[in-house]
Structure formats: C-alpha cells, structure tokens
Amino acid sequence: MKQMNYSPGLEGVVAGETAVACVDQGKLLYRGYAIGDLAERATFEEVAHLLVYGDLPNSEQLRRVQERLLEYRKLHELVVACLRRIPAAVPMMDVLRTGISMAGHFDPIVGDTLPDLQLRALWLSAQSAAIVATRYSVLNGQEPIAPRPDLSHAAQILYQAQGQEPDALSARLLDLTLILYAEHEFNASTFTARVICSTLSDMVSAVVGGIGALKGSLHGGANEKAMEMLLQFRTADEASQWVRETLMKKEKVMGFGHRVYKHGDHRAHILERELRKLAELKNAGEWMAIYDAIKDPMVNEKRIYPNVDYPCGLTYYLLGLPIDLYTPLFVCARMVGWCAHYIEQATDNRLYRPLSRYTGPVERKVWPIGER
Questions:
Q1: What CATH class does 222-318 carry?
Q2: In whole angstroms, what separates CA 32 from the centre of its chain?
Q3: Is the pLDDT of residue 259 over 70?
C-alpha cells in the first residue's frame, strides 16, 4: 500500500481555510480584532454580531441583535415540558444536547439563505441560554422566569437561572467568559460542526454534534475538571504537595497545556486578571493561594501554561455557579462561533473525507463455517 503521511489527532494538518478566527502563538483574532481589545471594549452581543455577520455592529445593528436575542429566548412549551421530565441526575450537557435537538423541531426561521442562517445562529444562541437557565431553575423548584428587556445577554442567563438580577460584577464576568469562549478556530467541536455541515446537513444537527464534542474533558469539560481538582484541597500546601507528586508521576494536570499555544493562552491571562479582582472582593484569598500553588510550579518549572479553562472554573465557582453549569455556559458562548463556521462552510463547501492508514490483518479468505 502507498505510504501516506500520518498525524495523530490531525496535529499540524491544515484541514481548511477560515476568515472567522486566527489562533496563533502571538495572537487570537476574531475576524481581525484582537481578543484583548474585544474583552476590554465589547460586549458579548457585539461579538456575536461580529462572528455571525462579519464585523462589529453600529448602534442600530446592535439594537437589532439585542432584540433578536430577547425575542428568540422563548422556549416552545414542549421543550419546557421535556426539560421538566428529564431525570434530575442527568448532566446538564446531556440535557442541553437533547434540548437543542428538540428545539430544532420548532425552528421559527424558514429557509437556508445567508440571512436565514444568520438569524438561525442568533436563535440557537438565545435558545441554548434559555435551555440552561430554565433547566437550572426547574431543578431548583422554581417556575421558568421570563426574560427582561433591560438586561444584557449574560445578565439574562444569571437572572433566569437564579431568579434575581445579578450584580454588575457577576454580569460583567460572565459576559467576559462568553466573549473569551465564543470562538477558537478549528478546535474539536468546531471541526465536528463543519464536518456535519459539509455533508449538507442542517445547522441544528451541526451544533448538536458540536455539543457532543465539547462535552469531553479534553475539550470543553476541562473547566469542570479543573474546578473539581481545586476542590480537593483545603490549603495551598496540600495543593503544592499534590501537584509535585502528580508531575513526578507524569500525570496530566487539568486546565494546563494547549495543542496550539505553547507559551500561554491569551484568554487565560485576560480572565485571570479579573479573577484576582473577584477573589479580592469575595475575600477568597485562600482559593487564589491554592490556584497559584498549582499554577506556579507548572509554569515556572515545567513551562506548561494554563489554558482558559483553569481560571474559568474558579471564576464560575466564585460566582456561585454549580460545576454542572460550566461547560453548558461554554456552549452558550461557542454557539455563535459554531454557527459562523457553519455559515462559512456552507458558503464554500467541500465534503470532508480524509484517508486512514489501515493497521488490520492482511487480506484473508472466508472459509465455510464448518472449516473455521
């Protein structure tokens, strides 16, 4: 058989072209805008417009996006009924996967023109947020709460989930994580969505596939695993001893390392600055000491840097959010990124069909059953 190049995990393989995002050692750009500038000067709604429509909105365009997200938050009554009936122990990511798939039966956008796909992207973004918030409120014995037109997309999630208007800091930090998680080029879940799109399947199917990929602990589930790791320790000394023993055994530390970034994740730097402010306000100095006890030897001795999931886990924890919500909130952010890639793939499509290298037995004869 002809020899072929083989890259496990497709590492280093260019599988397509995109104008949506640029992930590089020195920068992370959303359609040409640096992530640091967006984090400082934009809201999630503005970033959603940027990814779906191609540029940052003016005031009128932003108003329309805000109105659409508010309008599209309403869940069909059968979707709400489904969220009530799913057993309480089912993980939120599984609930969200089912909820989005069911919501797809009631998609209000008819057609697949570019404007239709762009509206469907906003609808899916609003629906994912509403499903997470509604399921959380139902689990806590509350009736679903109608959205408020005066709240931002991030504040709306917290309000509908917790039943009270969030403080400005909590809303801002959730908004920041939504911006940082919104897009990241050809990661596993985005590539999954693009592969599904390449078969000429629909956008809902593509993002349901994305949710399945994001659920894994090596991808979106890493923020949950990072917080579960931190919760093992009562003191920084315990954390310091554990991380050194773990490194000696050459075991993985969750929330560290990245396939692309070798010198640190830009998003982690941005979020960690805000996390430290939050910890100070919450008198959570011991948590930051535990956080640093793991981070410092990883960075200073092993040169393995935290990715965005490491500070995100503790950020959500200090905001009072249960761990089961962490990856679903990642979905609420990444939905617009997946949809932007779906639109790009659909606009200039070629079916993904890579080759494989066969490692099975050589050709064999099928013997009659009596002779086997």
A1: mainly alpha
A2: 21
A3: no
Q: Report how far residue 311's alpha carbon sits from residue 340's, in angstroms, rounded to the nearest whole number.
A: 26
Q: What residues act catalytically? A: 219, 258, 309
In whole angstroms, what is the distance from residue 357 CA to residue 359 CA? 6
The Cα 40–Cα 176 span in angstroms is: 9
Instruction: Give the C-alpha separation, 155 to 172, whole Å.
Output: 8
* Spatial separation of the C-alpha atoms in residues 315 and 279, rounded to whole Å: 8
Q: How far is CA 98 from the centre of its chain?
A: 17
When pLDDT is averaged across residues 314-318 and rounded to a whole number, the result is 96
44 vs 25, more confident: 44
Q: At what angle do helices 59-71 and 114-139 cross, to 10 degrees?
A: 50
For residue 216, the one-letter residue type is G
Domain ranges of the chain: 16-215+328-347, 222-318
Q: Bridge partners of 34?
A: 29
For 287-310, write each residue's pLDDT tens digit.
999 999 999 999 998 899 999 999
The mean pLDDT value for 331-349 works out to 97
Q: Is the pLDDT of residue 102 over 60?
A: yes
Q: Which of 139, 124, 11 is nearest to 84 (CA)?
A: 139
For residue 4, the model assigns a pLDDT of 72
CATH classification number, 16-215+328-347, choose in 3.30.420.340, 1.10.580.10, 3.40.50.2000, 3.40.50.2300: 1.10.580.10
DSSP 8-state assignment for residue 21? E
Beta strand 28-30 with 21-23 is: antiparallel
